[in-house]
Design brief:
The protein is built from six helices and four strands. It is α/β, with parallel strands linked by helices and 170 residues long. It has one domain: 3-Layer(aba) Sandwich (Collagenase (Catalytic Domain)), CATH 3.40.390.30. The protein has a four-stranded mixed beta sheet.
């Protein structure tokens, strides 16, 4: 994502793309969650978030990192500063579903965790060394709790779901 000339530093430019079919996502709820998260962190951003299936994630993983197979989240920093993020991330919803089972959480909470994880990487956090990983994990857990306290799900209600018929925004 190229920097957009003339966009003020505190502005957020957010591009969300859903190219997976593993679970129905509410891009509207995701947008609100990410915008609120960036505001709470005091950050401006030019950020692209791509929700992909495991095959596309495996291709990205192989092409850019030289690793085989799918993974949960991959982040690309395109020149972030402490005040303004500039990057994109790829999130595998299928991996979120599998890891949610392993960790006893919901798939949509895992997706939000991956978004937070990507934002923390763009803020300069690293998880390669054990000590740095612990610091990053503490921050990640803090923001996951913050997101959970908001009480908004990013899962799009299925057709016929009561929430979908009451006029609530999915």
């Amino acid at each position: 994502m190229p920097t957009i000339p003339g966009v003020p530093a505190g502005t957020v430019v957010l591009l969300l793309r859903n190219r997976q079919k593993d679970r129905p996502l509410s891009l509207r709820a995701l947008r609100r969650t990410i915008l609120d998260l960036l505001a709470a962190m005091g950050l401006g951003a030019e950020l692209g978030v791509h929700f992909v299936g495991p095959r596309e994630m495996a291709r990205v993983n192989e092409a850019f990192l030289g690793h085989e197979g799918s993974t949960d989240v991959i982040t690309f920093d395109h020149g972030s500063t402490p005040e303004r993020l500039h990057g994109e991330c790829f999130i595998s919803v299928a991996d979120a579903v599998a890891q949610a089972r392993d960790f006893g959480t919901s798939w949509d909470a895992e997706v939000v965790r991956y978004v937070i994880h990507a934002i923390l990487h763009l803020r300069g956090f690293d998880d390669l060394e054990p000590a740095a990983r612990r610091v990053m994990k503490r921050q990640e857990n803090r923001w996951v709790r913050w997101a959970a306290a908001r009480g908004e799900s990013i899962a799009r209600p299925a057709a016929g779901d009561r929430a979908g018929r009451t006029g609530r925004v999915p």
